[in-house]
């Protein structure tokens, strides 16, 4: 029994060029999904930081609002409040007053 080599037909590679293109397309799509996922994660981190910053600002504003509400309800002279603002925010002082600043950072 002799077999003829010419009679054998070679099977084409699994899928051939079409299979390679399909695999390449799937690989590119997976890469695209990975880039989108990483991009979305970065956006989420940035937004979470912004939320934390805004929550801190809200807390500060609520504290200031509470202080102002207390002043209004206490019936005290508002001039004390004006003096506090002038000293702390505007850096004002009385003409004969000496202000000492602690530069040690403590």
What overall form do the CA principal axes indicate? elongated
pLDDT < 50 runs, ≥5 residues = none
SS-derived structural category: mainly alpha
Sheet of most strands = none
The rounded distance between the terminal residues' Cα atoms is: 102 Å
Q: What's the order of the H and E elements?
A: HH
Q: What portion of residues is helical?
A: 55-70%
Number of strands: 0
User: Please, how many helices?
Assistant: 2
Strand content: under 5%
Quote the average pLDDT. 85
What do you see in this structure?
By secondary structure, the chain is mainly alpha-helical. It has a domain at 18-88. It contains two helices and no strands. It has helices spanning 16-74, 79-88. The chain is elongated. It starts with 15 loop residues before the first helix and ends in an 18-residue tail after the last helix.
